[in-house]
Amino acid sequence: MSSTPAKKPAAPAPQRLRALWPDIKAIVEPRKGSLAIGLLLIVISRLAGMVLPASMRYLVDDIIGKHNQDMLVPLVAAVVGATILQGISSFTLTQLLSKAAQRLIAELRQKVQSHVARLPISYFDTHKSGELVSRIMNDVEGVRNLVGTGLVELLGGILTAFLALFVLLNISPMLTGMALAVVLSFGFVLQKAFSTLRPIFRERGKISAEVTGRLTESLGGVRVVKGYHAEKREEEVFGRGVKRILDNVLSSLTGMSIMSLSATVLLGIVGALVMFIGSKQIFAGQMTLGGFVTFTAFLATLVAPIFQIVNIGTQLTEAFAGLERTREILSVQPEDEDPNRTVALPVINGEIKFNHVDFEYEEGKPVLEDVSFESKPGTVTALVGSSGSGKSTIIGLIAAFHKPTNGTVTVDGVDLSTAKLSSYRTQIGVVLQESFLFDGSIKENIAFSRPGATDEEILNACRIARVDEFCERFAEGYGTIVGERGVRLSGGQRQRVSIARAILADPRILILDEATSSLDSESEAMIQQGLSHLMQGRTTFVIAHRLSTIRRSDQILVVEGGRIVERGTHAELYGMEGRYHDLYTRQHGLEANLFLAPGEGDAIPEPVASGNPKGSSGAPPLRMLS
Length: 626
Fold this sequence. Notes:
By secondary structure, this protein is of the alpha/beta class. The protein folds into 2 domains: 13-331, Up-down Bundle (ABC transporter transmembrane region fold), CATH 1.20.1560; 352-596, P-loop containing nucleotide triphosphate hydrolases (Rossmann fold), CATH 3.40.50. 58% of the residues lie in helices and 10% in strands. The chain contains 21 helices and 10 strands. The protein has helices spanning 13-28, 32-49, 51-64, 72-117, 121-126, 129-137, 144-147, 149-171, 173-220, 222-227, 231-283, 289-330, 391-398, 421-424, 442-446, 455-464, 468-471, 491-505, 521-535, 570-576, 579-588; strands at 352-362, 365-375, 380-384, 406-411, 414-415, 428-431, 509-513, 539-543, 555-560, 563-568. Helix 1 packs across helix 12 (289-330), helix 9 (173-220) runs antiparallel to helix 11 and helix 9 (173-220) runs parallel beside helix 12 (289-330). The chain starts with 12 loop residues before the first helix and ends in a 38-residue tail after the last helix.
């Protein structure tokens, strides 16, 4: 019976802060000018805010107590002027730093998205798209408190507290000492609370990403959900996720409530002590009434920043948790930053070789074993076999989505694991079984493979792929919006758009993964001509379950259990009466294939010569797939 691995204990707070310091520095340093101005503004604001409590002593003792009305107007004018100055400095501070914080969030989101888009396919295999969306959009949100008013307000609160402490000590050292003892005890409570809250906030980001991921999947697969009447089940799954978020929020609210309770008790205890001891000192003549009023006002100035520190400290705790998660994803190496990928490929001929290739997605679980074959430029290689045999993995290696565990995959003699992806992937085209379209126009989806293509080039690709036949019936023509994942088009229409996109890309290597599976027989027959045009002079790899579509391939590889068990042309493999013969006759029956037997009229042509990669004169023309 397997046991759940023990949860890795969180690193101590100082250690985590040290780990985050380079990231914090990278965020703060470019904005140190704005932060310095913000700090100056907060100092002006806090000093101006102290004029009112400081004036209370003069108002009570010198103006009211001594009936000195001449000082009243100047004092009130000073208070009004200080208040206006405080308001202006606070407004300027918010405008300066809040906008800087929002710009930071935008930059970080762009940086994280750019990084995620360059991660290897294996990362996306283990992380839900909705989870990644949440991490891009939400995890960076709290970081605004590092550059926004939060951090500066915290520094301003600390400054105010020290200034207030200085004034209080001058008025009554005894009262100040007692108040300070209570405040320090509250500081111990704060430290404990923040150490408890930080992992809760970090866990909240993780749970939120998971719930968002499942919700995204559920909405994306709404037709499957409705088709199986599974709305209630999805509702229950989402409900459990929401309950996890709620439990997390309630846990954090408990910690925050404890801090608020402690702060309230602190305020009450300090207030009671000031009332009792201050009254005694006034009765004993050790303090004037004005001094007592001023002490009370400055004590509020001392305590208010403490409440503020509680609020801002919580925000900073959330910011650090989000920064940790952002740092975590940014630490994953993008595939195009692999130090082994140093070879920039020129325009390739498209000769692909597999040399004793092994591959594992998980260690100890081989998917491919000792796979070797060669595909000459301008030829068609078909991969057939049962589901899970390893065909798509071979295609993934050709597209450089993965690296072999052992052996090499070479293109024109260059080890593909050393090639710069930017120089290779611009020379391959892919048409998948599930045609993915973006929520844009038909024209935008076709131009995705070559954004700089002219309208004429796009229209030509549409004519070859027979997109024009259905597109011109739409009121908006090529400007018709296809909807999310192309939902407003039929499966065959989406596939034709995908084929047009590949035609426009003009690739040297072409991958067709069940490219006509979504088409009816009539549409397939029409598009085969377009595919034949697309395949001319290109190294083409075809995965097809309809074996009739790959009869005229230059070579057919039969893949079973991660190995190539048979290879040859259709006629050769059919004559062997092995695995390919079994697969083919199951689909079509013996009689349907007699006309393809060697010696009969429609014999299988010889493969295109490897010396003519471009399909130029002298080489036989590339045949249609069916």
